[in-house]
Amino acid sequence: MSGHVARKRFGQHFLVDTALIDAIVRQIDPRPGEPLVEIGPGLGALTQPLLERCGALTVIELDRDLAARWRKREGVTVIESDVLKVDFAALADAAGKPLRVVGNLPYNISTPILFHLLEVADRVRDQHFMLQKEVVDRMAAGPGGKDYGRLSVMLQWRYAIEATLDVPPEAFDPPPRVDSAIVRMRPLATPPALDPARLGALVTAAFSQRRKLLRHSLGRWLAEQGFAGSFDLQRRAEEVPVAEYVALAQAVGSAPAAPGA
Question: Which segments constitute the Ribosomal RNA adenine methylase transferase N-terminal domain (predicted)?
Answer without folding.
Answer: 20-189
